[in-house]
Amino acid sequence: MSNFQLFNTLSRKLEDFQPLVKDRVGMYVCGPTVYGPPHLGHVRGPVVFDVLRRFMEVKGLSVRYVRNITDVGHLVGDGDEGEDKLQKQARLEQVEPMEVAQAYTDAYNSVMDRLNVKRPSIEPKASGHIIEQIEMIQSIMSKGLAYEVNGSVYFDVAAYSKDHKYGELSGRVLDDLIAGAGEQARSLEGQDEKRSANDFALWKKASPEHIMQWSSPWGKGYPGWHIECSAMSAKYLGEEFDIHGGGMDLLFPHHEGEIAQSCAAHGTHPARFWVHHNMITINGQKMAKSLGNGIQAEALFSGDHPLLNQAYSPMTLRFFVLQAHYRGTLDFSNDALLAAQKGLQRLQAAWKTFKGLKVSATATLSFDDLHADCEAAMNNDLATAQVIASLFEWARRINLVNDSRETVDAAALEKAMGLFQTYYFDVLGLELEASADDSALDSAMQVLLELRAQAKADKNYALSDAIRDKLAASGFQIKDGKDGSSWSRS
Q1: CA gyration radius for the chain?
Q2: For residue 315, which of 288, 289, 348, 359 has the smallest C-alpha distance?
Q3: Residue boundaries of the structural domains of the chain
Q4: Distance of CA 240 to the CA centre of its chain
Q5: Could you read off the pLDDT of 372-414 as tens digits, one per residue?
Q6: Which residue has the higher pLDDT, 254 or 439?
Q7: Fold of 5-173+202-277
Q8: Cα–Cα distance, 282 to 200 (Å, whole number)
Q9: pLDDT tens digits for range 191-205
Q10: E strand map for 139-199
Q11: Phi/psi zone of residue 284: left (φ > 0), alpha (ψ -120 to 50 degrees), beta?
């Protein structure tokens, strides 16, 4: 995959990407913890990594894309203490935890489908890979890098750091972490059984009231949050694979823990490239429950939220995400969404105009430079905003031809079509949406079809044929069937 560069969080620089196995890519992306409805914060990552996958596939690579579902082990405090997020939600809803997991997994995938995010090649669940997690923990313990206390197993960060660099991904220094933690962290509930406040749980002993628990060599319990991704990525992609993706909020401790676990168990880094997208803010503020500024995805599509002035389509939301570079912050506001909506409509209108362009014997316009610009932009760390800028230039040139100020020959027209199809549809993953004008046209056509059907019922065949013929002359084709008539553009 020549000239393709990705920013590697591990090295903190752009690097040339070449897969470990020729023409095949293994990519693991951290999926959702399914304890609630999908929200705005769930949107950016899947769209970014969908575009990365699509671009590699357009370049001729076969991609095995693994995105997990966390349905156990993610505790309320994002650490080693507190109630399991799914169990807490199950208690509130008075249902089984797996009912919660299934309902919100379905809701998440429904939103991803509407955003035209391709389903992963494999979508493993943490609860379905308990054996693999236990085996990995045993391997880490056999190396002397984990210890058991009262039925819980903890990763020994200090022992690991004798031969490895804990904190290399996030840039955190272990001495600083130790100084920052201090005795205050050790005195927290349950932390006193750890050798160090920096150690993290690989397996937690379950209290009698804990619903989600499994048998293990250390007694009844459940896996820690970090171990699931290490075990599942190794199972489906191997001990070393090409790309691990996720949000910057997972960099520490989750991804840092993954690296430590994998190095301890397998003696190698799990992923060659670590790719992280930045967060979405809302009107300049971080999304937080305490601020009350979270927006569920369904509310975005319906407009039913105090922060929204109207409903926005899934493609408008996808287009909005791709207008900014994935490593930069993305601020959500009604003005930004309206601008994205107008930009998307402009490109869609140009595509409709393009379909009616007439070919000339000679061309005064070329689209070769835009092909090169889009290719260069994607090769430069997925610069989707630059691709969109090239598509706007494509639209401008199409309108010049439509206004008879420029001309295109058959070859130029074919290249113009190829550019739009490759980058708008295949790489950016955008789809054409029905506009308000389309809806109005459909309503008007239905009225004409009803009038024609009534004329046929009255045996007024002259009027029925006249409606059909005049519509045909205007570019519309009427098809009669046993269930009625339908229309399409000729």
Answers
A1: 27
A2: 348
A3: 5-173+202-277, 282-427, 438-489
A4: 23
A5: 999 999 999 999 999 999 999 999 999 999 999 999 999 999 9
A6: 254
A7: Rossmann fold (3.40.50)
A8: 32
A9: 579 999 999 999 999
A10: 146-149, 152-155
A11: left
